[in-house]
Amino acid sequence: MANTSYREIKDSLTQLYLDDPRPWLVGFSGGKDSTLLASLIFDAVQSVPAEQRKKPVTVLCTDTRVEIPAIADMVEGTLSRMRKFSRQNDLNIEAHLLKPPPEQSFWVNLIGRGYPPPNRTFRWCTQRMKIDPVNTFVKQRMGHWGEAILHLGARRAESSTRAQTMADRETRGGLCRHPDLPRVWVSNPIQFLTTEEVWAYLLQRANPWGGDSRALYKLYANASNGECPIQIDTSTPACGNSRFGCWTCTVVEKDKASEGLLAAGDDRMEHLLEFRQTLLDFRDPANGWRDDRRMNGNEGAGPLLIKGRRELLKRLLTLQEETGLELISPEELLLIQQMWKAARDPDDGRGVARIVNKQRGVIMTTDLKELNRLREIEEEVASEKGINADILRRMLAKVEEFSESHRAHGLPDDLLNILKDDLFQGMLVKEPVA
User: Is residue 134 part of a domain?
Assistant: First the structure.
């Protein structure tokens, strides 16, 4: 492809900027494709006369908080340079690093709720950690906007699945409807470029916000792979053969990016890869870390048992000390404790504190008098009402968990499942001994 084709893409973006009043959103993952897209958009906006740069343009990047450290560091630096360059040149371009709320973080779902590490059929992480933060941000902005255009760096040459998905989507004026956000239109400006053409552009030109793409190219060379694109729906292929994604990813069979970075000298990846193997071990029902009943009470491999969650937390805190990385926050620890109180084998309210207090330099206190008095009250109420005290504690903990997140959707089902557990235990007790 000749340089004129890159110019045609930029010219098309410039014309759309001038002719269409809808605000722009730009998906950015820090990988080669989204970096090329962002470069073209910055160039397009900069080519517009200063007095006409009125359109809001927002670069969106998601941080799952379990990203590969080298990638996370590079992305944060790039977003910072983007913001500075936009301010200096009055481009009206914002850059946001979006994160899932603590109650939907990887560790709260895994260690708190007991979700098994994700696989291809139960890929719970993508929706909660990548899609929802973007959708929440966009919905908040849509309160001020009528419609918006979301530019993505998706290319048909990435895979046959991606090519088919993009070809099947109905377009209007080169734009297609977002699958979950009806007032958002999706644009794929670089969809017909090849991988070679992407690198040719990036390596021959400096980025508008400063610096070049040699560091990015080196990361790809080290990892021998690609990035996990910003995802807009669950039909997007999993971060698989081409990914810079989460170091915890158990959806893929081998994490080639992490292994490549370790081979290139990033010693942190050794400990992270070992922990990823631990997650795979805990996911296998044969290893005894999972319940033999699902969360809805049906038979089958279910959530992680409390003993498994405790063990994972111990190992995670050890990993945090070994790597020097901040892997889990105090707020997440408090949420995990709350969820342990609502588990099938409920915690006494002090389990997380006991584990954390054993870790060097980390202190987490609990008011034992208050906890003991609360348990006495729960025992009294349970006795008076003729119900199981543990079931009462679990239901109270579940209500408290939902109240802290200021939502009620799903609470009745969760309470019903706790009552099913009570019924199931009662049936076991009544069964005659053979």
Answer: yes
Domain count, the chain: 2
Of the candidates 248, 267, 260, 262, the one whose C-alpha atom is nearest the C-alpha of residue 322 is 267
Domain residues for the domain of 171 are: 3-214+225-235
pLDDT tens profile 73-92: 999 999 999 999 999 999 99
Q: How far apart are CA 40 and CA 24, in angstroms?
A: 13
Q: Are residues 31 and 156 in the same domain?
A: yes
Q: What are phi and psi of 96, to 5 degrees?
A: -120, 135
In a domain, 315, yes or no: no
Looking at the domain assignment, is residue 219 inside a domain? no
Q: What angle do CA 276, 282, 287 make, to 5 degrees?
A: 135
DSSP 8-state secondary structure symbol assigned to residue 108: I
Structure tokens that stand for 196 in this block: 């070679």
Q: Yes or no: say if 399 and 406 are a contact pair by the CB < 8 Å rule.
A: no
Look over the chain and give the mean of its residue pLDDT values, rounded to a whole number. 85
Average pLDDT over residues 245-250: 92
Question: If you search the block for the tokens 């009552």, which residue do you land on?
Answer: 419
**Each residue of 106-149: pLDDT tens digit?**
999 999 999 999 999 999 999 999 999 999 999 999 888 889 99
CATH code, domain carrying 117: 3.40.50.620
